[in-house]
Amino acid sequence: MATFQVVARGSVMSPDLFGVWESSAAAPAAFATRGARGNVPQWRVDFSAPDEMANAFGALDASLRATDNALALADARLADFVAVQQTVSPRRLPATFATAPRPEAELNRLLLAASSSAAFGVTDWLGDWKQAFDEFLAFAQQIQQHVMNYALVDTRLAETRVGITRVTWGGDFETVFAPAAAIGNAAHRAALRAALLARQQLLKQFAAVIRGAGQLAGLALIAANPVLALPAALRFLKLVFDEIRKAQTV
């Protein structure tokens, strides 16, 4: 069975929509990389046999494409949400979003809670927003780890390491291949490409959160606490992703 695993401190968002890349906070002992520093994200790909590779990489590519489509959909839906918020009076918002899909309904509920908290006290605000804030802080730490430390990519075939690459911030690739293993070399090159695309996808998700927060920050319901726009935008993106995943399983 083929497995894709990214070892990093945080795992709020998966690099790909359907979780082909599995996140872990620590490397399993059997997959430990000698000399790997704990702050460097480690991308690990393991194949039981060469004939698994084509289907495994195909499934991963499809999930990464689906992630791009999901980001575009979330952007469009958030823009529509903001447009409605700007044209409907606050007292009519609960009724307006009563039958909305869960991402829009939940975002509207959070914004209304923020508005009420500004008027009636901090306790209500903490109660409704703590999870959203915790999620955003963890996501920011996850992204920080991938930005401050580039990547280490480790590929195994039939439990034998066939290649390992350290990617540096200077753009250098320090690669060691197993000797006389052409199929292993090809597998590692494909794994390296897959890891770099997945890392790029995480950064795209963070950029989408920043864009979304920029749209939300100007809304009247959140104007008194514009910093709330960041966790609100992440919550909306997560809910859109969840909605798409659930639709695929029906």
Q: Quickly give the structural class.
A: alpha/beta
Q: In terms of quaternary structure, what is this?
A: single chain
Strand and helix order: EEEHHHHEEEHH
Shape: elongated
Instruction: Write down the Rg.
Output: 21 Å
N- to C-terminal separation? 25 Å
The percent of residues in helical segments reads 55-70%
The overall number of domains is: 1
Tell me the β content.
5-15%
Walk me through what this model shows.
Helix content is 56%, strand content 14%. The protein is an alpha/beta fold. It has one domain. A six-stranded mixed sheet has the order 2-1-3-4-5-6, with helices on one face. Helix 3 runs antiparallel to helix 6 (229-249). The longest helix is centred in the N-terminal third of the chain and has 35 residues, at 53-87. The radius of gyration is 21 Å and the shape is elongated. Mean pLDDT is 88; it is low at 118-123.
Helix-strand blueprint:
Layout: E1 3-7, E2 21-24, E3 42-47, H1 53-87, H2 93-96, H3 102-120, H4 122-148, E4 151-157, E5 160-167, E6 173-177, H5 182-216, H6 229-249
Parallel strand pairs: 1-2, 3-4
Antiparallel strand pairs: 1-3, 4-5, 5-6
Task: Provide a brief overview of the structure.
By secondary structure, the chain is α/β, with parallel strands linked by helices. It has helices spanning about 55-85, 95, 100-120, 120-150, 180-215, 230-250, and strands at about 5, 20-25, 40-45, 150-155, 160-165, 175.
List keywords for this structure.
alpha/beta, 6 helices, elongated
